Request: fold
Amino acid sequence: VQTARLETFSDGVFAIAATLLILEVRVPEEGSLTNGLLHLWPSYLAYGISFATIGIMWINHHALFAQIGRVDRTFLAINVLFLMVIAFIPFPTEVLARNLHGDARQAAIFYGLVNVLMAAMFSAVWFYAAVGRRLIAEDADPRVVSGISRSFAPGIPSYALATLSAYLSPWLAVALFGALAIFYALESTIFSRTGVPAPDAADPG
Amino acid sequence: VQTARLETFSDGVFAIAATLLILEVRVPEEGSLTNGLLHLWPSYLAYGISFATIGIMWINHHALFAQIGRVDRTFLAINVLFLMVIAFIPFPTEVLARNLHGDARQAAIFYGLVNVLMAAMFSAVWFYAAVGRRLIAEDADPRVVSGISRSFAPGIPSYALATLSAYLSPWLAVALFGALAIFYALESTIFSRTGVPAPDAADPG
Amino acid sequence: VQTARLETFSDGVFAIAATLLILEVRVPEEGSLTNGLLHLWPSYLAYGISFATIGIMWINHHALFAQIGRVDRTFLAINVLFLMVIAFIPFPTEVLARNLHGDARQAAIFYGLVNVLMAAMFSAVWFYAAVGRRLIAEDADPRVVSGISRSFAPGIPSYALATLSAYLSPWLAVALFGALAIFYALESTIFSRTGVPAPDAADPG
Amino acid sequence: VQTARLETFSDGVFAIAATLLILEVRVPEEGSLTNGLLHLWPSYLAYGISFATIGIMWINHHALFAQIGRVDRTFLAINVLFLMVIAFIPFPTEVLARNLHGDARQAAIFYGLVNVLMAAMFSAVWFYAAVGRRLIAEDADPRVVSGISRSFAPGIPSYALATLSAYLSPWLAVALFGALAIFYALESTIFSRTGVPAPDAADPG
Reply:
């Protein structure tokens, strides 16, 4: 009950931010339509990476909230700031899509910096709740809680390194952004180091 | 509980993708307004077909989930990919609407290919859950489950044939896309071959 | 349970369609900002009438669903068609806002025709469920059900008359569209003729 | 139950209005990308203030509804009008972002007037429900209810003063809009004067 209404608002922002991404893909106006559609591949790529990133953040946000038993005003405010970054993602996505054939390096750095900020705000959401078990549910398993805390360690450095790699090559950076999304989706590092079943894999009942 | 949060996010993406379709219908800028509004019929047609398609996918998505008892990480990731295709639909819809008086064939093929991809991802969602009853609810009727599995057979070939028909005539392809939407809406083939009542038609309680 | 998932999707489409209306209000580009903002009054007016209309349809849609106990496939399909019209409203709203200083008559007629279609589809939703109590809940009060049925009588003629009044004066038509929204909001005609309390006014418990 | 469906619609409008704000941040078209992104700071600032404002209104809206036990038709209509103002916010936000380097004073006054209207409508929502405990839940603590009523006192004057300060300096006004958002987020004035725990800080159960 305490967390349900926060989750409803969060679900809305995640779903809308992900769906608004499509607005950055613009119909080609001139030349052969097939050529125009093929030349839009940077838009498709940016759409795919950002949609996957938001989708995975949504999955993990829900998994975190399964451990949280109550909320306070500060936690609500931190969550609003986190959602402010999630809802911002369509903008760097469009910047990346528009500039992959031009200022690709600057666009990739901007895209990466927003991802670093997203990872930092997500850590703030979790650690505000977890430090001293401030908002953790009474019946939450301590091993799951400390496992989640440990799993946050690589998030910010990974996105920071991917961002810095744009100085070597913007394409490398984009490849790393995509790899990070796939990695978090398939490996679910956040929840697999605890030695206990992931919340999502438990039997119903 | 297990599937509820996935359904909330999915409901959001379906509803937003369907409602964003209207943004492709642009106010005519010059000439008589009435003429301009009449000449927009390709936009209305594309809006109607895509809205119906997303609406029907949403109905069927819910019907499938009535058979599913738990979720795992891979299933969540497959669903995010499926929703990525659903949220993409406003783009090929706008491509189709803008080009029905021009490159109609190429636009219809692009629109059709996205529908084939949608049908393929929807099959992936179902068969990942259904093979070996991996995620099927304990109390799900095996006849309903196998009936749903059989009902997926015509999906990909139908959309593929409609797409290929654009080489004969793009208008034929558009007519087939519309017919497929109406067919799936009214016939509900997916659920009528099982010999048991469709889940939606059951009495409450 | 039967109707809950349909209501979730409907809530989403109503909320998104209402919120997307703001996209038709465009920032003035030239001249004094204050003058530009004042000259946008047709946009504010169209925004207000359409937002109120969608909001009231949402209230009434929920009130109808309180009487409905189960759904079938045809009912789902009719609802998708009804929501298709709701999600379409941002377009005639923008047409009206852009043309109140120009082709006001044609714009008002187009706006009115979409409202007539909306009222017709809303009637189809109700009467498909109500005729022979096909989908009415077992415990629904017959006086409430027949009261709702009677209250649908003035809907289509009212919007049709408002539309036709545009031939006298488009301003009259716009005034009538606004009056209809206010009338349905404050009088709640649909539910006040039954001699029983409106569902929303009942005590909780 | 009585208020749940109103909250669902409200959650949707809050979440969509907040997420649509990103559409006012436009990709720079010419010159160095980094320079262009830096020069967009008025857009980022307006986005941040408006997102925080909508987020805080959403938190407070939910806290109010925790005290409300039933709804009537007039209350629903007032809420639709309130949500009409919330959904309008993306427009003054874009006006502010586009004009901070130009007609900053006029833009800040317009932005402020919409905030005054928002505060006034929010007061109307609360006092319609609270006067004579018209719609207050039976078990609501009278001290909480009167504490909320007192906490509304500074809202309209604060936003009015911030708006008027634009005649001294538009930058002062923007700083005050930001300060008001932070103040309401962190101080939660509305709920801290009652001498009882804020609803959100209570233990679950």
